[in-house]
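help with these tokens:
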Amino acid sequence: MELNGTVSVDGQSGRAYTSGSGSASGGGAGGSLLVVASRLSGTGTLSADGGAGADGYGTLDSNGGSGGRIAIHAHETSRGVSFTGAVRARAGAAYGSWGAQAAAGTVYWCDGRASESEAALEGEANVHRCGVRRLELDNSDRVRTPYFTQLQLPAWRRLVEVDELHLGSGVQLAVPGPPVFDPVAMPLNRTAVVLGNVTGVGSGTSALHALAGTTVSLAGLRPGAARTGSGFARARSSGSCP
């Protein structure tokens, strides 16, 4: 697949008030894009940005929409090689007096193809036989957000591995626990998330929130891989997570 133009599922911008005293409507959230190709090439753009906030009467301005979701499955290594374009899922900018910036979306790269034997060793952590699994959260130059970007997992999923986690400035990632968790009755019914390299300007300023029943490990997943970020500014656990 060669992409030199733009494929966009951006949210609509909010509408400003028109008369009298009224609130502006908020921006719409970005949509979802799934790309599956033997190879992705070109210099184009994939975008799932949220729509911008709008001008309201006085202090009744509105927030932008949160970023959407983009997943790219390319069987041949493409990111930064044959494809040098832009892929983004940013929140729409908050307007004026509205101070709480919406959450970033996610960009997921399943880049390259692991052999069947390699993928088999990783089991459910690599059901798509990804060569490199890269997750990106980046709100560009938006102000720090108090809202979480939620990692969405199927109810049956218990192990997630991400080779590269790229964090922009001031984003927050929340990792959900299993649907049912009891630290006494079912201590082993947990969700395990293993992260390899942590990169980006947000590697020292962003936050990771692990909910009850979730174990998060920071470790290199492949030969030669190492954690490169300076560490999360805050790592929080919510609930009774031993």
